[in-house]
Amino acid sequence: MKFVAFERSKQGTGASRRLRNSGKAPGIVYGGEGQEPKLVELDHNALWHALKKETFHASVLDMEIGEAVTKVLLRDVQYHPFKQQVLHVDFQRVDAKTRLHMKVPLHFVNQEESPAVKTHANLINHTMTELEVACFPGDLPEFIEVDLSSLDNAGTVTVKELKLPKGVKFVVHGNKTNPVVASAVAPVVEEEIVAPVAAPAADAKKGKKK
Questions:
Q1: What is the Cβ-side half-sphere exposure of residue 15, based on CA atoms within 13 angstroms?
Q2: What is the largest CA-CA distance in the chain?
Q3: Residue 89 — left, alpha, or beta (φ > 0 → left; ψ -120 to 50 → alpha)?
Q4: What's the rounded mean pLDDT across residues 65-84?
Q5: What is the mean pLDDT of residues 143-164?
Q6: Domain 100-185 in CATH: superfamily?
Q7: 13 by DSSP, 3-state: which?
């Protein structure tokens, strides 16, 4: 995915405020061996629409500045607390020969066709929505598909059951070597509470005496 940025020379709170008032969003590009951080500005509306796309968050991007194109990753976005406004955005340069760590979104498919849902009316809990992976930039997938078609009653799908693309490895944190990605949970059946029937009063049985 390609986007356009422009170099900016002024920095500081006042300069950034004036930039936002003119419909621009301030940003920075950092990283890369021997390269200095570069201040950039982007058209705010174009950036706002790009940020709504999953691809913009989870893939290697082509940042066009003048006639040069640089491979970057989106690393951080700061939003205004209540306005629909981007306050600042950070990008990291990407080296094709350096392995990177990146969180990739998970796409769940065939949920309704699984025995857990179709036969047992289970509820599916998506325990994870993204997966941190390690790979070279050229191998980075836009998303990882999670096939739930074989998920059975009260079953689970773990990371090791996923079909990761070639060259992509799951990043292990601590002792979580095989975390659960999705699980099937049986629906809760509420028991109907039957109120006890009150015994008839003694007078009602014998009748009233005249």
A1: 10
A2: 111
A3: beta
A4: 95
A5: 96
A6: Ribosomal protein L25, C-terminal domain (2.170.120.20)
A7: helix
